[in-house]
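User: I'm curious what two different proteins look like when written out as structure tokens. Can you demonstrate?

Assistant: Sure. I'll show them one after the other, since each token string lines up with its own sequence. Here's the first protein:
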Amino acid sequence: MEDNNLVSVIVVTYNQHDSIARTLDSILMQKCRLPIEIVVGDDASTDGARAVCEDYVRRYPDIVRLMPAAPNKGVVDNYFDCLLACRGKYIADCAGDDYWTDPKKLDKEVEIMEADASVTIVHTNWRTYNEDTHETKDNTIEQFSAPKTDGKQMLEAIITQTTAPVVHLCTALYRSETIKRCYDANIDLFRNKDLGCEDLQIVFMLALNGTVAYLPDVTMTYSTGKPSVSNQCNHAKQFRFVRQTAMLSWLLASRAGIDTERTRWFFSLRVYELLMHAFRSGDAKLKPVALECMSTWNVNPDIKIKTVLAVMSNTVLWNVMLGVRRAFVALKRLLRIVRLS
């Protein structure tokens, strides 16, 4: 049952022993006019992260709730199991390797939501932190910087984002009733593990159903530099991620009847990326999958796509070009070492 005097914060984590305490501490430091609960979904971590979460439950039993231990679910089921367990009027989330930096983050967002019932989601700016180099960088890409925007005006941008997300969900606060209603009506979009992510459909549906509010304040640090679902070293795995998220964008665009020059460019770009990951992986089985996506997304191949297809059509040529690419990458790495020495 929803509690109209509560903010729920979802924290999903998997093998983040070294960062999960930082995440939880950043939520516990919040000074909010409404009480908060933290719903933690540990996805069968093997590095001791769950023990850290259990310690927080012992220390903050009235705030921190840890979802029951279960076999590994994957990020999609883990997230939405947590979402359905949330009791708050509003929901926020913070990934287990990210952290909030503004102790008034939730309070600022609650104030906006309480004052305007048309606002379905409010989000803020953020910065990145590279865990390997320890470099911090402010996000400078603010596509919709007005305090409030009709969400329908943002739909095209949301499904065609290629660099920074239009709405970084870990900065956001959204209405529980709205997202749960959308979830019930579109379970195929929310629970389909083959679509690869949980945030894109949430942001899209919230924008489709109301006003999106924005605060330029930096309230969150996004951790980068380590392999993750969206940042993987393996080209075959990256192929799968690109295909999944692009397919989700296609389904959202189709459901909302969005077919523009921008969306056609976006899906052409995604086909090219799929082919390049297939080429770099050396896995011939990925090529027909990319071609199937090209057909599904109604992409007319441009010169870049035709060039990659031509290279991959001949096994000898493919291997030769892979060798050339490896040599070029090795040379760049060597030159970088020389410059640093």
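Here's a second, unrelated protein for contrast:
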Amino acid sequence: MMATPVLAQESAAPEVPAAPATAQLDTVVVTGEQPGPGLWKVSKGEHVLWVLGTQSPLPQKMQWRAREVEERVAQSQAVLLSPGLYIKSGVGFWGRLALIPSLIGIRNNPDGKKLAQIVPAEQYARWQPLKQRYLGRGNKVEKWRPLFAAMELYGEAIKRNGMTGGNDLIGERVEAFSKKAGIKPTLVKVTVDVKEPRAAIKEFKHSALDDLDCFSKTLDRLETDLGNMKLRVNAWATGDLAALRALPFTNQYAACMQAMQGATVLKDFGDINAQTKQAWIEAASKALDTNASTFALLPMSDIIGEGRYLSALAERGYHVEAPDDVDEVPAIAAQP
């Protein structure tokens, strides 16, 4: 069952002590041309899969020196893009246009409630100084569900700290290299088929989301992890994998994705994260068996974080080598 949100009085925002101001961080995000990390090599016999670990966010003013990636893509017969979720609505262009009016207000809390009436008082006290610092005094976001408010806050916070979303940037460059090489990239995806999109939108607007954990972890990350976040983006940009492995990683995305998957329109489709991982492993195995060379993208957290997709390929008999020759697979395979 979904957790019941703790409601504050509707007449006024809760009177709680202000949260302490977040300490100013002096870590400088790198700029200029940077090499990025090396490539993981997965092989069996003469067949090779080259894997680039992607990172988000990335330094805002970095130019990625991607010569090795371009060369590996040019030598490959297939390119696998990062795995993701695809929502199929079964409507064409005009049908999508007709749906636009029903999307208005989709981010808002049901029944017109404000954020102060949805989140616990302690979380709202932490939210206020962060919101003022990064979003200003506007009240539009105060109508939004905690999930969407957290996403808006996070996006503006990384921008103000010299960072930008990285996965799209990397994906676009790899797609450009693929086009130049005459390869149509493969999007590894799990498809959710929404038969009646208008009804699904209406249902989503009126359904509760168990998104307080997402909201809280986003606040945690902005209060305590911005310094490490800058160190991580610098480590990716300069190719320092030892630093990436050593730095603690607080990931609010898992909690936010879990909240979205708990929505009525998605919860009947099972564990989408597990399905996505399995889809990528199957696509990678097929590509390895079929092609002499394949290039693939994976989030860095799925390579050296908890996801560790490549250990599943090792268990199937493929040989996995890290760019810095660190043999990670035995330690991964030993985990329960």
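A detail about the second structure: Residues 202 and 275 are 26 Å apart (CA to CA).
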